[in-house]
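Backbone-to-sequence.
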């Protein structure tokens, strides 16, 4: 019988890996039950998973785990808290509060406390302490797992391993040796040798404290044992890893005896088992062998990528547009020293008219003669000024003091300006060098996509009354399976605003077309605009939609932009932002993630149409729209806006329509 290749089968199973992990992990972590009957780790997974299928899978796993691992009262409260957490995620997913990092931890704690407080009303203070401790664990876990399924970091993975250690602590392998404590010892040994000492000690002590909160098994005081073991093991980093492992075993066993653990030899056995696992594993990870080549084989060059050429071209264009040819502003004239000193001293002097009108040339020459000496020395002295000036000035001592005060601030301003110019020059060189480096390195891969959804685009620009050019700019383009909608609004109106918005849109489109992700592209462009603003450059708002046409997943990026609107059947939701325009701040753009199903509309506008303080009419118009012609909707919005606001500002409207299945889905731009 012919053997069926396994690679296509495994490739088909790959999309199921994350959903299966969400279901299995939330089920297993319910076994991590702390004193009082609380299982905060599975609730944290429900909160971190969010809405739709990921949240439902984690909710189902937490519910099944409650049936298996918890008693009936505790399991019932656990399921109720999980349902409330999922419901709160669903209810607030379209609000700006949901996008804040602190929302999900706070919301999960509030839902759990809401359920548990009814049970704890007439309970002892000890029960309340266990509940509050579990709430703290829940908040920390949600914080670490807020990006677990999208872009997990080191803390997210170690938090999962910590939760698994707590869940498996009741599993006894031999005598008093616990599977969970072996895993915990392995984690402590790893982070003691790899992480900064303070962070390793805090994490290790916290892990031990969590294990101490598990109500089954003997008393170990693992918070103190693991904390001391991590601190002593961290001192052995300069030596071979086996020395660190031996130090960990000895310190764990000695700490268990010192803190009078019920079974101190168990801590030693578990530390030995962790060391045996750690040495080959750590060596394999740290010393991964290089791929061997045949003798005499030449290194094959990386395939040339058009995306890298485009990325390099985009960075060069950014450099040319913002920096090349820009003349530096002239340095401050030292004569300002004497002008400001004269404002303080000479204005009320009886000889002011004689010095500054009748004998202006001699006064001016006296300052010119003194200026090089005092700038070189950094201090003005009486002998720096000619005798004909110092003997005639009746307030010469006061004038000299005022000149020295102004000289100090002048030198500080000059030093600051010099440092600023150096930093700007370094940034300009980095943009130029990065563009040159990208031309010859790395490869950008773009996945092939099939059967993307169709769309229709409607757009229009209208300049301010009395202007020939519109200060707003619109762009629509595709990169692989991603559709981008861009609206930039230049500050002011007329030719200057048109030039700024068009340049911003062109540069951003070059970055995105080159395959650079929107987040890094916007940060790079914003940083360049901040440098350019030092020379008087303008500022521009940016409103960007990135739609994955294969799934309907969309991301909105805003830099000071007007609200955007999503119309789904008869409901309309608004997406706003509080950030400043690009070039006025160093923060990243505000990001909103959403799903655009078939039959929905996404509406972008500039502030000449409406703003978030006066857009109720626009929301009502969109909610009542029943047509199918997207261009007719654009014309209706422009007409209604002109009736309400006239032509007092530039106006731009850009609308994306995702047709229902069966409609004509040809792209119309």
């Amino acid at each position: 019988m012919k053997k069926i290749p396994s690679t296509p089968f495994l490739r088909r199973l790959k999309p199921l890996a994350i959903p299966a992990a969400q279901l299995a992990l939330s089920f297993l972590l319910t076994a991590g039950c702390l004193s009082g009957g609380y299982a905060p780790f599975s609730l944290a997974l429900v909160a971190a998973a969010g809405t739709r299928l990921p949240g439902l899978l984690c909710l189902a796993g937490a519910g099944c785990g409650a049936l298996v691992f918890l008693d009936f009262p505790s399991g019932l409260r656990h399921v109720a808290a999980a349902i409330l957490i999922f419901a709160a995620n669903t209810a607030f997913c379209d609000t700006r509060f949901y996008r804040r990092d602190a929302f999900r931890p706070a919301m999960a704690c509030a839902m759990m406390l809401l359920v548990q407080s009814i049970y704890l009303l007439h309970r002892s203070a000890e029960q309340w302490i266990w509940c509050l401790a579990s709430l703290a664990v829940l908040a920390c876990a949600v914080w670490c797992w807020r990006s677990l399924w999208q872009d997990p970091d080191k803390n997210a993975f170690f938090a999962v391993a910590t939760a698994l250690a707590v869940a498996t602590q009741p599993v006894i392998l031999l005598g008093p040796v616990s599977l969970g404590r072996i895993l915990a010892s392995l984690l402590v040994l790893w982070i003691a040798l790899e992480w900064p000492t303070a962070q390793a000690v805090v994490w290790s002590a916290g892990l031990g404290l969590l294990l101490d909160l598990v109500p089954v098994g003997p008393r170990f005081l693992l918070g103190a044992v693991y904390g001391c073991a991590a601190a002593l093991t961290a001192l052995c980093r300069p030596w071979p890893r086996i020395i660190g492992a031996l130090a960990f075993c000895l310190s764990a066993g000695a700490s268990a005896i010192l803190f009078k653990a019920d079974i101190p030899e168990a801590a030693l056995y578990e530390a030995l088992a962790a060391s045996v696992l750690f040495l080959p594993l750590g060596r394999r990870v740290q010393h991964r062998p290089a791929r061997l080549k045949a003798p005499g084989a030449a290194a094959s060059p990386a395939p040339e990528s058009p995306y890298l050429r485009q990325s390099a071209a985009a960075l060069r264009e950014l450099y040319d547009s913002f920096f090349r040819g820009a003349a530096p502003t002239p340095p401050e004239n030292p004569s300002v020293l004497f002008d400001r000193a004269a404002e303080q001293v000479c204005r009320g002097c009886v000889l002011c008219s004689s010095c500054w009108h009748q004998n202006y040339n001699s006064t001016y020459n006296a300052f010119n003669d003194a200026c090089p000496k005092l700038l070189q020395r950094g201090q003005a002295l009486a002998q720096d000024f000619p005798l004909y000036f110092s003997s005639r000035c009746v307030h010469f001592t006061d004038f000299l003091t005022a000149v020295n005060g102004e000289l100090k601030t002048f030198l500080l301003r000059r030093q600051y300006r010099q440092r600023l110019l150096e930093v700007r020059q370094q940034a300009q060189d980095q943009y130029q060098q990065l563009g040159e480096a990208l031309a010859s390195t790395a490869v950008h891969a773009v996945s092939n996509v099939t059967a993307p959804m169709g769309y229709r685009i409607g757009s229009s620009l209208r300049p301010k009354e009395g202007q020939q050019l519109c200060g707003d700019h619109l762009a629509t383009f595709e990169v692989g399976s991603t559709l981008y909608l861009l609206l930039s609004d230049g500050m002011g109106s007329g030719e200057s605003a048109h030039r700024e918005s068009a340049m911003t849109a062109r540069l951003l489109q070059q970055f995105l077309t080159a395959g650079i992700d929107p987040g890094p592209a916007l940060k790079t462009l914003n940083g360049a605009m901040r440098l350019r603003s030092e020379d008087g450059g303008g500022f521009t708002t940016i409103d960007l939609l990135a739609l994955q046409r294969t799934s309907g997943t969309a991301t909105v990026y805003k830099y000071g932009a007007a609200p955007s609107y999503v119309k789904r059947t008869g409901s309309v939701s608004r997406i706003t932002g509080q950030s400043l325009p690009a070039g006025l701040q160093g923060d990243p753009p505000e990001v909103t993630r959403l799903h655009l199903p078939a039959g929905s509309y996404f509406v972008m506008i500039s502030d000449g149409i409406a703003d978030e303080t006066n857009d109720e009419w626009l929301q009502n118009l969109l909610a009542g729209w029943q047509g199918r012609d997207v261009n007719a909707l654009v014309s209706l919005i422009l007409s209604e806006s002109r009736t309400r606001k006239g032509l007092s500002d530039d106006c731009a409207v850009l609308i994306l329509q995702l047709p229902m299945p069966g409609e004509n889905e040809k792209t119309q731009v």
